[in-house]
Amino acid sequence: MDIQAYAKINLTLDVLDRRTDGYHIVKMIMQNISLYDNLSFSRGNSGIEITTNHPHLPTGPSNLVYKAAELLFNEFNLDGGLEIFIDKQIPVAAGLAGGSTNAAATLVAINKLWGLGLTKDQLATRGAQLGADIPFCIKGGTQLATGIGTQLKELPTCPKLYLVVVNPPLEVSTAQVYQNLTLDEVTKHPETTKVIKALEEKNKKMVINNLSNLLELTTFDLYQEVATLKDNVESLTNKALMSGSGPTVLGFVKNKSQAKAVQAKLQEELSSKHRILVAQTVNHGLLDS
Ligand code: ATP
């Protein structure tokens, strides 16, 4: 079976506290966009075998797909094996939750292929053991995430937003960004409540005006080039925002043709090592195909 696993952005990303165990208490609105990886799953004889079109993606136990499969194989003592091909289109280590969405697809696929009968909530609980973004990737759409990011509340569908996704040739470690975040120095937190109100009122302009990511300052301190990229994208669009912990920068525009025009302009201006993609928000996270 094939599953399209969609990338995630944050309309807001706020961090409220750091727990003594190192986890952070967050408040954020998570949103799927139209970029996706296609994962093909089939039952095999034994073991978990991953192949991919991506030149640098690990295919062994460090792949989140492997971890997700292992978790269900061990818990339910499943027979046989699993073969997975990952057609990777979502930039890796980009702040777009590519690994998490692949893991979510794997949990859903095994649940179907072996007829485990687990609900989405039951799959999300298992996914949370592997990564805080995985429950969102299982549920998808537009969700408010609180706690360590795994407590979800479905929000009204986001009005369709068009964006340009600009991924520079740089990998940012999410853990490093969180470790360097100094909450005492934060003077202004993202207005998540305002964005929820904007979603309820279907007020696109109000959504765009209040897009905000608390991690920007920390990532910009660590990687000055991401700050420069954001300024560049902002000068061509209505609003620029760093995605997750970076380094990808999102530029929000009016419609698809403006997105394509901005894409073309950035392709001229930036080195060819940047991936510059056109996307739009979607109201689902995983699709069977
Ligand atoms: P997050 O914001 O959730 O940390 P991200 O979008 O920044 O994630 P990913 O694309 O998930 O980044 O990759 C983070 C790391 O996970 C990379 O170092 C990558 O090698 C590793 N990884 C393991 N499995 C996968 C996978 N299936 N797809 C992408 N990356 C994976």
UniProtKB/TrEMBL annotation:
Source organism phylogeny: Bacteria, Bacillati, Bacillota, Clostridia, Halanaerobiales
Domain GHMP kinase C-terminal: residue ranges: 196-270
EC number(s) given by UniProt: 2.7.1.148
Gene name in the database record: ispE
Descriptive protein name: 4-diphosphocytidyl-2-C-methyl-D-erythritol kinase
Keywords: ATP-binding, Isoprene biosynthesis, Kinase, Nucleotide-binding, Transferase
Protein role: Catalyzes the phosphorylation of the position 2 hydroxy group of 4-diphosphocytidyl-2C-methyl-D-erythritol.
GHMP kinase N-terminal domain sequence ranges: 63-141
Pathway annotation from the record: Isoprenoid biosynthesis; isopentenyl diphosphate biosynthesis via DXP pathway; isopentenyl diphosphate from 1-deoxy-D-xylulose 5-phosphate: step 3/6
One GO MF term attached to the UniProt entry: ATP binding
Residues that hold ATP according to the record: 91-101
InterPro entries named among the record's database cross-references: GHMP_kinase_C_dom, GHMP_kinase_C_sf, GHMP_kinase_N_dom, IspE, Ribosomal_Su5_D2-typ_SF, Ribsml_uS5_D2-typ_fold_subgr
Similarity field: Belongs to the GHMP kinase family. IspE subfamily.
Catalytic residues, chain numbering: 8, 133
GO biological process terms, semicolon-separated: isopentenyl diphosphate biosynthetic process, methylerythritol 4-phosphate pathway; terpenoid biosynthetic process
Catalytic activity: 4-CDP-2-C-methyl-D-erythritol + ATP = 4-CDP-2-C-methyl-D-erythritol 2-phosphate + ADP + H(+)
UniProt-listed PANTHER family: 4-DIPHOSPHOCYTIDYL-2-C-METHYL-D-ERYTHRITOL KINASE, CHLOROPLASTIC
Organism field: Halobacteroides halobius (strain ATCC 35273 / DSM 5150 / MD-1)
Gene3D superfamilies listed in its UniProt record: 3.30.230.10, GHMP kinase, C-terminal domain
